[in-house]
Design a protein that fits this description.
Shape: elongated
Order of helices and strands: EHEEHHEEHEE
Radius of gyration: 17 Å
CATH architecture of the largest domain: 2-Layer Sandwich
Number of helices: 4
Helix content: 25-40%
């Protein structure tokens, strides 16, 4: 079977504050925030991402969320976060090199893995880092 993402994205979170969202997710999952899963807010996109440290069936979790009264009341949309092989690193110094980024993102200490490509975007002070597989990105 295909590998499933350990992360669930929640769209339209403006009606549910950060603390409320964490408690809601604890109630639905019967797990504990920070011990069993983390929640990252991305306010400029009006989304939050729950990443499960403890192994769970995230497809089943999304189904439970879709059926939950409060999730529907807040008009939030949960869905599996797609697995990706590429990330965008932002706010990079002008002097950064693709070699430095390759070595940095291949470091196991930084949670990285084998890098297949680095595309510098100097006009945006960013870079697109592509890994050999989706497990090697942080």
């Amino acid at each position: 079977s295909a590998e499933v993402s350990p992360s669930v994205v929640f769209e339209n979170i403006e009606r549910c504050g950060p603390d409320c969202l964490q408690i809601l997710l604890e109630n639905i999952s019967d797990l504990t925030v920070n011990a069993d899963f983390t929640v990252e807010l991305i306010p400029e996109r009006n989304v939050a991402v729950a990443t499960f440290i403890k192994s769970i069936d995230t497809k089943e979790f999304v189904k439970k969320c879709l059926q939950h009264n409060r999730v529907r009341e807040f008009k939030m949309t949960p869905k599996l976060l797609e697995l990706t092989r590429a990330i965008k690193a932002e706010n990079l110094p002008d002097s950064i090199s693709s070699d430095y980024l390759t070595v940095y993102f291949e470091s196991r200490r930084n949670g990285g893995g084998p890098v297949s490509d680095v595309q510098l975007l100097p006009e945006e002070s960013s870079a697109i880092i592509t890994f050999c597989d989706h497990k090697g990105n942080t």
